[in-house]
Design a protein that fits this description.
This protein is α+β, with helices and mostly antiparallel strands. Helix content is about 30%, strand content about 15%. Bound molecules: FE2/S2 (inorganic) cluster (2 copies).
């Protein structure tokens, strides 16, 4: 029996092995390859997506557990052709190098800024504790996040299409 779920606002179904990690369903079946596959063990955060409004490593969730879930990937975090504020700040602060970690970081930080729109640098650092970056110094990433918080407007709207 197919497992049904919502992906970036669209109804989807998966009829394969229910033990298949969500990460593989996203990349191989749905062809949404911006969710990165790195450690596949729940440590690096590169595969982080939103499941029912919370950031979760997609490599650690078998699709069989996700019947009826609402899943948002980096492709669905902002309207097509638009960047969300975290993506824009990363671009403006030139923090992206290989980029493997960034989709997961954007998901994590978007959720974090929805809950805390005036964080300290230490709080941003703690929020990123589950997202590893092997290339960029974390200070520039934190600078980018702090620049969003310095703006007058609400930093990050609810994650939806
Ligand atoms: S690939 Fe999932 S946490 Fe590293
Ligand atoms: S930019 Fe390469 S791992 Fe973060």
């Amino acid at each position: 029996m197919a497992i049904e779920f919502t992906l970036n606002g669209e109804e989807r179904a998966f009829a394969g092995d229910p033990r298949t990690p969500l990460l593989d369903v996203l990349r191989d079946d749905c062809r949404l390859t911006s969710t990165k596959s790195v450690c596949r063990a729940g440590f690096c955060g590169a595969c982080t997506v939103m499941i029912d409004g919370a950031p979760v490593p997609a490599c650690q969730r078998p699709i069989g557990m996700l019947e009826g879930a609402e899943i948002v990937t980096i492709e669905g975090i902002s309207p097509p052709e638009e960047l969300n504020p975290v993506q824009r700040a990363f671009l403006e602060h030139d923090v992206v190098q290989c980029g493997m970690c960034f989709p997961g970081m954007v998901i994590t930080l978007t959720d974090f800024l929805r809950r805390n729109d005036a964080p300290s640098r230490g709080e941003v650092k703690a929020a990123l504790s589950g997202n590893m970056c092997r290339c960029t110094g974390y200070e520039r990433i934190i600078d980018a996040v702090m620049s969003i918080c310095a703006m007058d407007t609400q930093p990050v709207e609810a994650v939806s299409r």
